[in-house]
Write a structure and sequence with these properties.
By secondary structure, this protein is of the alpha+beta class. 63% of the residues lie in helices and 12% in strands. The chain starts with a strand and ends with a strand.
């Protein structure tokens, strides 16, 4: 089970210049993080970045994250800054294995309900629908603890199907969710950060 869950927006135009040039200048460094056929893998990554960073696979992007993290292993914020300069915006993260597990469980339930798999790279509108479901569910789970997200109450009339599903899932699984108020905060903050965003959202577990 992953201990970290990263949410990423990309800027392909910046990446095709800054990230491509950085990789080209520091090939020996990044190849240490690539598999046995490192040279071939490197050329594939460079070609994809030159075209669009959004063409990278989950494994290729994870390699880039590990590479950047190696520059400043004790300074996570600096690593995020360097990624941002190179066209990769790590705009939100969830830490702690149990929090990640609960978030992923709600995602799995939503995928079964919607009959739509939210892959490593997601359409922002589809991700937004999942976040609304997550807010409904975690609000139901948090009401008894005195924590309510007013935004979800305003969203209820526009999403009756999602709310009814959240109620059904809460009745079936609500007691199994640990720290619902913490999850409630994650969903609310992610919604605020992505509600007007039109690009792709990348979900990377590490």
């Amino acid at each position: 089970m992953a201990n970290e869950l990263y949410f990423i927006k990309t800027n392909p135009n910046i990446a095709k210049i800054n990230l491509y040039n950085k990789i080209s200048r520091e090939e020996e460094g990044i190849m240490k993080f690539l598999p046995d056929d490192a040279k071939v893998s490197l050329e594939i990554i460079k070609k994809k970045v030159k075209d669009s960073v959004e063409h990278l696979t989950k494994e290729e992007l994870a390699t880039i994250f590990d590479w950047f993290s190696s520059f400043c292993p004790s300074d996570h914020e600096e690593a995020k800054t360097q990624l941002f300069i190179n066209g990769i915006d790590l705009f939100y993260e969830i830490s702690h294995e149990n929090r990640v597990k609960n978030f992923q469980q709600l995602l799995s339930d939503y995928e079964n309900y919607s009959q739509q798999k939210l892959e490593f790279m997601m359409n922002s509108q589809n991700f937004n629908q999942f976040l609304i479901y997550g807010m409904f569910f975690t609000d139901l789970a948090s009401e008894g603890k005195g924590s309510v997200n007013m935004l979800s109450h305003y969203l209820k009339p526009d999403h009756p199907g999602l709310y009814n599903f959240a109620e059904d899932q809460f009745k079936a699984n609500g007691p199994e969710i640990e720290n619902p108020t913490e999850l409630q905060r994650y969903f609310g903050e992610l919604y605020d950060l992505t509600r007007f965003y039109q690009g792709s959202i990348i979900k990377l577990d590490q």
